[in-house]
Amino acid sequence: MRDNVEFIEAVPARCARMLAEGEVEVALVPVIEYQRAKDVSLVPDVCVGSNGEVRSVLLVSRKPELESIRSVALDESSRTSATLVKIIFREFLRRDAEWTTRSPNLNEMLERNDAALIIGDPAMVFSRGDLRIWDMASLWRNYTGLGFVFAMWMLRDSASNRVRRIDFSAARDEGVANKDEIISDYQKLLSLSRESLQEYLDRNICFRLNDQMQEGLNLYYELAHKHGLIEVIKPLKTLELPASSVRQAVSLSRNPTG
After folding, report:
1. Which of 61, 95, 158, 195 suits 115 as a labelling partner, its CA being 20 to 30 A distant?
2. Per-residue pLDDT tens over the stretch 222-232
3. Helix count and strand count (H, E) for the chain
4. CA–CA distance, 18 with 206 (Å, rounded to integer)
5. Strand bridging mode 57-61 / 26-30
């Protein structure tokens, strides 16, 4: 089975585009794209989310307060997080901002904007200096009391019979069981301490959809619709899994938060 699967590493926005255009059959996709894509389903109980601070999805500014931010540069890699920051402004701060989309270069993003939204590896490694930083999952929890889901595995309905043979839950559990190896790889890649990466995987990121994150996902969709960021709210449709599945390792995306 593994030999017949082609794995492609890509940022969340590209994963969404490839799934929508039929270039791939299944992808780890920003959750907002479920409401925009046609003929797709969700893989149940496997996600990338957070119950509090996430550390890899940040709003960064030289302004001291959220209320003083008038323009935001959005990381072009992001879709779920870009929608989230707009919801924060429109629903909870009761105002809008000027939005632009840029490549994730923090200095360039802040040259002409009050704030920058950055996700994934770039959000983990930049020099903090005198910058003001808001963790987006923490902001969401402060305003709602709920966890947040950034990305889930989604599949084209036409591929459901083939995808059903992949045990995504087993792949998740295998990845968690091999955290030490993953930490060693990323320690070299990101030049972060082993302790920092251990804390990130143990405390900041959740890979199983719990009740608080499910409630948070439902509210996120409701608010996205309320503020015109999606046209409709589709009911969640999940892949029906057999009692036993063929175990298939699925590699983790480098920038899983969307």
Report:
1. 195
2. 999 999 999 99
3. 10, 8
4. 25
5. unpaired
Q: Are residues 35 and 157 in the same domain?
A: yes
Q: Are 116 and 106 in contact (CB under 8 A)?
A: yes
Which burial class, exposed, middle or buried, applies to 6 when counting CB atoms under 10 A from its CB (0-12, 13-18, 19+)? exposed
Task: Report the pLDDT value the prediction gives residue 242, as an integer from 0 to 100.
Answer: 59
Q: Quote the CA–CA distance of 55 and 89 in Å, as a whole number.
A: 20
For 173-205, write each residue's pLDDT tens digit. 999 999 999 999 999 889 899 999 999 999 999
Could you tell me the CA-to-CA distances from 53 to 43, 49, 56, 134, 142 in Å, in that order? 24, 10, 9, 10, 10
- Looking up tokens 């935001």 gives 72
What is the extent of the structural domain holding 131? 57-144
Q: Give phi and psi for 49, each to the nearest 5.
A: -150, -175
Distance CA 119, CA 74 (A): 9
Is beta strand 40-50 parallel, antiparallel or unpaired with respect to 148-156?
antiparallel
Query: Which whole number is the average pLDDT over 94-118?
Result: 96
Domain end point (choices 144, 171, 202): 144
> Using one digit for the tens of pLDDT, what is the confidence trace for 29-87?
999 999 999 999 999 999 999 999 999 999 999 999 999 999 999 999 889 999 999 99
